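It would be a great kindness if you could assist me with a short task in structural biology. The matter concerns a single protein, recorded as an amino acid sequence and a row of backbone structure tokens. Could you please explain, in whatever detail you think fit, how the structure tokens follow from the sequence? Thank you for your consideration; the sequence and its tokens are set out here:
___
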Amino acid sequence: MLWPANSPDLNPIEHMWDELCRRVQQHHPSPANLGQLLQWLQQEWNGVPRAFICNLIHSMRQRCVECLGHNGGHTRY
């Protein structure tokens, strides 16, 4: 396995960034400036349900198993 330590499949923060991106993209119109984007990101970060974060943490064992099964390649995560 050449890649697992850097695999995005093993990094829960990648899934958190994806969730934040989807949440911010729901705001219309797009942010007018960096300050507004930062405000929205902070607001959405605080609004992510605890269950979502717990699911990311509790799925780590299965993520590792999947990654090993794919020799460090992409998984369904």
The mean pLDDT is 84. Residues 12-25 form the longest helix (14 residues).
